[in-house]
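Hello, quick one for you while I still have it in my head. A protein chain has come my way and I'm curious about its shape. Can you walk me through what the tokens say about the fold? No rush at all, and the record is pasted right below.
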Amino acid sequence: MRDLEKRFVKGTELRLSGSDNSPVLSGHIARFNVPSEDFGGWTENIAPGAFKDSLGRDDIRALWNHEDGLVLGRTAVGTLDLWEDEIGLAFRNRPPDTTWFRDRVVSLKRKDVTGSSFGFFTELDEWRTNPDGTRVRTLRKVRLIEVSPGVTFPAYPQTSTEVARRSLERWLGAGGPDMEHRRRRLDLQRLRLGL
């Protein structure tokens, strides 16, 4: 069974344009080849093309702050457009004319809310160890479930990284000359993170 992961990626952009009666949200939900924050000895980045298959296949929702009851748009009905460009995963969203969204426009205009995020299932990832011993996870192919333009606390939720940790453990379990050393470091990291 796969678990849903959620990520905020550094350098995303969220713009509000249009009129008060017809607002438009746009920008980038994710950026390619930009390292994440350090998760305790490992970082993550997104490879170009990671979203391509999902964009051509899946009906993806835009949600406010990952809340499934606050739907901003949907690809199947044309209120959410998603595409990959040279920067990353770009979007354009025409939110609903609802009271709850009009209330949130105030926070967007004041720039109290500036972050974006996305929820996904990993279909293909790759791990490598840098010469300094740090590990890097590269997301090669993901099934995109939702994007969230409008995230209050744009950070990597601790629970979201647990799925990636299990992927790291499988990679470490595949062997290698310094396997015992890696396992000890992973155990120490778990202790520090309280896992």
The chain has one domain: 5-157. The beta strands are 5-7, 13-18, 23-31, 42-46, 61-64, 67-74, 80-84, 88-93, 115-129, 135-151.
